[in-house]
Amino acid sequence: MFNLTLYLSVINYLNLYTLAKKNHSLRFNNYIINAILMSVCTFAFSQKGNYFIHNYLPAQYIAGDQNRSVIQDKYGRILVANNDGILINDGTEWQSVNFQFLCLSLAKNEKEEIFTGGDGNFGKFIQSDNGEFKFESLLHLLPPNEKEVNKIWSIITLKDHVYFCSNQKIFEYHANKITTISPDEEGFHTFFKVGDHLVVKERGKGLKFLSVNREMTLFKGGELFEGNDTPVRGIINFGTKYYIISPKGVFQFDFNNSLPEASSIKKISTPIDNWLSEKTAYCAANLGSGHFALGSVSGGLLITDSQFNALKYINAGNELQDDGVNYIYNDYQGHIWLALAKGVSLIEFNNPVTRFTKSDGVKGTIEDCIHFNNCIYLATDKGLLYYNSASQKFESTNVTEESFCFRKINGNLIAGTKTGLYCLDKENFIKVYDMQSAPRFIFTDKIENKTSAGSSAVIYVGTETGYGKLIYENKKFKPLLELYELYIDIRSIIKDEENNIYLGSTAKGVFVIRPGVDSMEAVPSKSNLDYFDESGFLKFNNELFVFNRGNVYKIDKINGKPWVVKSESFKDLMDKYYILLSHIVTNQNIWLNYKPRDKIGEGEGLMCLGLKNGKFEIIPTQLSRIKESDTRSFCANDSVVYIGTNNGLYCYDVNLKNTNSVLNTFVNLLKFGKDSTKYFYNLNPNTKLGQIELTFKNNFIEIYPGASDFIDKNELLFAYYMEGREAVYGPFTNKKV
């Protein structure tokens, strides 16, 4: 006899914070196992840019190509209506439950009961006490004279009524009885839930609703959809405004929920009318926050705002595995699931991290980036690029030589390339200053002589072999001092409150140029500054920090002279992280790149820091979504931080309105074994395993945890301890426990 309690704790490493503690309590003895699972909250975010897409091929989920519908059950698992049956994704792997008929539709009611239907059959999809899923047909409830069932294309649930919809009949399931609703001679076509009503497109008649006396009643204006050439493919709403989506365009639907016969319909003109027709609109969904998703037969997915302005085209040309979108589902975390003509896809719509890669026109390694006049510019080893909002891709400018840096000066955009400085003039960059040493950093010291005719600016330019002090006026540079034979590669320049100019080099430490003096002198160090490694600067709350060889120092004055000293505010972070050189300060937060000190040989990471009680601390973000990329630069505009890497440009939307969404955790598999192995699947709060007798040889227990987070299962790390054996949690891992 034994009595043990297992405690599980899960963290989402992607978000850098604990999602749940003690969220499983599996108490078992040699007869009975009870499972208690708890829901926790995570956050959904708005986002900009190109979304991360997960494509699930038929070879991965091991079932048919065609998928028709998607829902999410109360535990957060994703269910897909596949030609072969139901696919289930538990956040870890796919499971398939095969049917004896073609599966075409899925739905759930307010009680979280799941219903499914297909060719010749319909019923409930349930989970038995031992965790196994099975289909329970409702055909035995059909009236004696209504035994013929055709393809159930859609299932609509309204309170305690369930409507199984075919072109030939609608089967209404209520109070354990089934009654039928018949069309006129041409049959039904498509079916929708609008408010508290069942709305149906009927061939040869138009758009109707089911009245309280169970009659199909034509809407005012519903005759617009009488012909087969004007199908209804979606009915979506933004607040109280409803819209009907068709390949023929968008129709404004002034829907009256209390008195539907008083509703009216009229066609409106929208910017996406051509796309709806050319790509053949097939389905639609409301994504919330003023966004719509429209699926098509041949053009993939289109995201629009509430005014139907196109925001993003997602298709086979930019990572979607198939252009035939049969169904769109917005999950609990705000992401998009697509049931496709071939496969299933997950789009991280509600993720703050988006990206532009090679397929979006990004060439080479991004050395610097800048947002200027509502356009993003990139300096890369392949030249200067700009973002074309019309094509939604980056394109080359007239400068194709190796480029390193940008700076806004007097309202102009200046770029540094291997041969000199360029100024943006309308659509082209014009060379305005030749340099014998490649500029790597441009710093604006001060603006002088501000008049109605313009102003001049004093500029410091760090180069591969020294620096130049220039004056910029009327889009021209003039030299004040040029020292390009110092053989010092200067990559960072900054100024303190006393107008001292500091220069950071790649191999000779930190230098200072005092006011009124043109020569530079080395800044001594009272710490272990490595003069043979690159030094960079960061200014935060008027303090100057020095980044050097994984450590962070600061500039302090001793007897009136600058020194490099230890930084206590970064000390705790430096114990764990090797701090690298790229950084930006936005809204009192520092964004930078790093490597773990205990895994220095692994790839880079990114973090966002905030100052608390004199110490910098990590702010929870989803920056670890950015993988296998070395960061070279940052820039920011409004709510977006842009991150330039050797693997594309990433965008992080910091202007996030957190909305609670349920993240459930569960046990995918419970295994007793050695010789006479016992398995129990999909444990949830309602699971009742009954009595389990364990023989002496069944001397181990394995528990495979899961969670309804589908972004990266390796980011969900579980720790456990078994009361009676361990006293504290063990290490977090994504392996079985």
List the helices and strands and how they pair.
Layout: E1 4-12, E2 17-28, E3 33-34, E4 39-44, E5 53-56, H1 58-61, E6 67-72, E7 78-82, E8 85-89, E9 94-98, E10 103-108, E11 114-118, E12 121-127, E13 133-137, E14 154-158, E15 161-165, E16 170-174, E17 177-181, E18 188-194, E19 197-202, E20 206-210, E21 216-218, E22 234-238, E23 241-246, E24 249-254, E25 264-268, H2 273-278, E26 281-288, E27 291-296, E28 301-305, E29 310-314, E30 325-330, E31 336-340, E32 344-347, E33 353-356, E34 366-372, E35 375-380, E36 383-388, E37 393-396, E38 403-409, E39 412-417, E40 420-425, E41 428-434, E42 439-451, E43 454-463, E44 467-473, E45 476-483, E46 490-495, E47 501-505, E48 510-513, E49 521-522, E50 535-540, E51 543-548, E52 551-558, E53 561-566, H3 571-576, E54 577-586, E55 589-596, E56 605-612, E57 615-618, E58 631-637, E59 640-645, E60 648-653, E61 659-673, E62 678-683, E63 700-707, E64 716-723
Task: Tell me what the structure shows.
This protein is mainly β. The protein contains three helices and 64 strands. It has a four-stranded antiparallel beta sheet, with no helix packed on it. Strands 4, 61, 62 and 63 form a four-stranded antiparallel beta sheet that branches. A four-stranded antiparallel beta sheet has the order 5-32-31-30. Strand 30 and strand 31 (336-340) form a beta hairpin. The model is unreliable at 1-5 and 13-47 (pLDDT under 50).
